[in-house]
Amino acid sequence: MVELPTEGEPVRVIEGDALESLRHLPSESVACCVTSPPYWGGLRDYGQPGQLGLERRPEDYVSALSVVFGEVRRVLEPGGSLWLNVGDVYAASGKGGGGSAGGRTSWATVRDRKGFRMPPDGYKMKDLTLVAFQLADRLRRDGWYLRQTVVWEKPSAAEPARLDRPSVSHEYVYLFAKSEDYATRGPGERWWNSSVWRIPPDLSADHPATMPLELARRCVAASSSPGGVVLDPFGGSGTTGVAAVAADRRAVLLELNPEYAAIARRRVAEAMGMGAGSLLRALPQPSLFGEGE
Ligand SMILES: C[S@@+](CC[C@H](N)C(=O)[O-])C[C@H]1O[C@@H](n2cnc3c(N)ncnc32)[C@H](O)[C@@H]1O
Fold it and tell me: How far is the CA of 39 from the centre of ligand 1 (A)?
């Protein structure tokens, strides 16, 4: 059994496969899960055997994640919530095509190398797969309560201009609850009044798909209380852990890639050194995002 974080060690970063690690976490021990899994379609190669996202068919990706999130549901407290950030992906990279998630690596190159130049069975060349909604619907059918689809609007479209369709400038953040009577509550901030969140992407160099701290902060604030445990099974560079520390929560982060796990430990240690107040002051303020609420 994995030991939960303590007051003395509020964040635990556990290296290894998410599903395997989750199986060692106690049931009903976590207040909420805030996470961004690897996206389908070989958009990014995290360079690790066992990494998710390289399944040939969207349906296989959805099935693999449904098992992982089944374990997440077990470890959540009865009133627990899951905030799931994921983007949609086109069926094939085609010639010079790309994905939808934004970033500095060449999607087409990674996708071509991983065999995603041609669409999987059942999809055509230019199809948007709706893999994000396929996943959301599967989790709903697994027993999760799907409570909201938040559109995360990225003020500057990360995707280059396209000739035959508007550029993608958003991703989704699905809010799921473990039970009908769940504990997520509005924290008294303006963004709660909208299902469109305008937050600039984090383009720092630590990780190719870093979640903005402000996005994680909102989810943590709404779905946990001080001292509660926040989980990220795809911890990456540790943004969820930093948001948890800043809000006086504890966190468990799981990550397959040892280099990212090391970055997560460093970022969390820095955040703890800064103290919650100065960390949050260092965050871009929502009003500067032109939130317009
Ligand atoms: C989208 S990134 C998460 C980024 C993170 N939210 C952040 O802000 O840095 C997905 C992460 O999942 C990790 N990953 C991929 N397959 C995994 C697996 N089977 N178990 C655990 N982690 C995995 C990747 O290494 C990558 O760091």
Answer: 9
